[in-house]
Design a protein that fits this description.
Layout: H1 3-21, H2 28-35, E1 43-47, H3 54-62, H4 66-72, E2 73-75, E3 80-85, E4 93-98, H5 109-115, E5 120-127, H6 134-146, E6 152-157, H7 187-198, E7 205-209, E8 211-212, E9 223-224, H8 226-236, H9 240-246, H10 249-252, H11 257-276, H12 286-303, H13 310-320, H14 323-334, H15 340-369, H16 375-397
Parallel strand pairs: 1-4, 1-5, 5-6, 6-7
Antiparallel strand pairs: 2-3, 3-4, 8-9
């Protein structure tokens, strides 16, 4: 490393360290609030009767437990409520839950007004053996009439209720993407699934049968059909945020319990910095980028039950080395290219934040185990995470 490289590395880490251990920059929250309205927050509108499996679906998609989800809902209209994941301050996805269907005459106009102007996916949740779904079907038809371009995925839940006995296992491999269903699917279950699909034959709908259960229920896997659901979502709503939410294969073997909880927070801050980093003037957005990364470091350390001390930070920066420097300084130079450069700079800021978060998780995992990763391991985690996030964030902007 040359003297100039050492100086740039020291400058970068010092700036981030100042953001980490200094009081929050004055006006940071107000500045972030100006950026957040421009960030994409896809809205997953859940339509379904009570006990249809909507909370289990959110739990499966986000990896959050039921208690966290229940405590996170906020009212938005007289009949509906919303849940921002992973948090209200830095949402990367919003679930809108309509509670009135099947309980009283439901008029979706107020919810339609609330959703206007946002990205949308209509997730219709039907309990597979519930044939009394007239209100749900009517609501879907009215919503589609007003917004014919909104994608619709019908999720048919609680498949095990259609199994002939309680000791029947889920059918593997997942058979419901075949047409017609194979003979392994119980005849009675086939009949009810196809009958429900007939209700939507005039609409452009994707159907995904699932069975999301608890471990004590005895059905394995507990998230049966989740991969098929993600494939349908990614087909109708291609977005980098969705790909990041699922994670990547190359990092799954490194995810311990804490890293799994940190993953959605890393995504939230990465998407936030993708917006902050696209601020057109060079160096203007850099303090905000560093401040957001500082908040991410504090959040991750808290999840691991550790205090973010200067010693921990110095150890991490020494192990990771100069990898971050070129990204930060290169991002500012990109802003000299009008329009195109601004967009690319935003992608780089988001991808770099994501990669730092992933590398920091691997480092803290080593701290907890008493066996620190070496520079090569951390650099590989950072590089792979950066490439993964950059590709997905770029696809979101294409």
């Amino acid at each position: 490393m040359t003297i100039a490289d050492r100086w740039r590395t020291s400058w970068t880490w010092n700036r981030l360290g100042k953001a980490l251990f200094s009081p929050k920059p004055e006006g940071l929250d107000a500045k972030l609030e100006q950026v957040k309205p421009h960030l994409p927050v896809p809205v997953f509108w859940l339509l379904g009767k009570t006990q249809s499996g909507k909370t289990s679906l959110i739990r499966a998609l986000t990896g959050s437990d039921t208690a966290e989800i229940g405590n996170g809902f906020q009212p938005c209209t007289r009949s509906s409520r919303f849940y921002d994941f992973p948090s209200r301050s830095h949402p990367m996805i919003r679930f809108l839950d309509t509670r009135g269907i099947g309980e009283a005459t439901y008029d979706p106009s107020e919810d339609l007004a609330w959703c206007a102007g946002q990205a949308h996916l209509l997730l219709v949740v039907l309990r597979a053996l519930d044939m009394n779904q007239a209100e749900v079907v009517a609501a879907v038809q009215e919503i589609h009439a007003q917004h014919p371009h909104w994608p619709i995925v019908v999720v048919q839940t609680s498949l095990h209720e259609g199994y002939p006995t309680t000791d029947v296992e889920h059918i593997q491999p997942y058979p419901y993407q075949q047409t017609p269903f194979p003979a392994a699917v119980p005849h009675a279950l086939t009949q009810v699934l196809l009958h429900q699909r007939d209700w939507f034959k005039s609409l452009p709908v994707h159907f995904v049968p699932v069975d999301f259960t608890q471990a004590e229920d005895g059905y394995h896997p507990v998230d049966y059909g989740l991969d098929a659901l993600w494939e349908s979502i990614e087909t109708v709503l291609p977005a980098g945020v969705i790909g990041l939410l699922r994670g990547s294969e190359q990092h799954r073997e490194l995810l311990d319990f804490h890293a799994q909880h940190a993953h959605p927070h890393i995504i939230g801050y990465a998407v936030l910095n993708a917006g902050v980093g696209a601020i057109p003037l060079p160096a203007v957005g850099l303090p905000l980028v560093l401040a957001v990364q500082a908040k991410l470091f504090h959040s991750i350390a808290s999840i691991y039950g550790l205090e973010l001390t200067r010693r921990l930070y110095a150890e991490f920066t020494t192990l990771l080395g100069a990898g971050i420097t070129a990204g930060l300084l290169g991002r500012e130079l990109l802003k000299l290219i009008p329009v195109y450069g601004w967009a690319v700079a935003g992608v780089y800021s988001g991808a770099m934040t994501y990669a730092l978060g992933k590398a920091f998780c691997v480092y803290l995992y080593g701290v907890k185990r008493g066996a620190l990763p070496d520079h090569t391991t951390l650099q590989k985690v950072y590089d792979e995470a950066f490439v993964h996030a950059r590709q997905l964030l770029k696809s979101r902007n294409d």
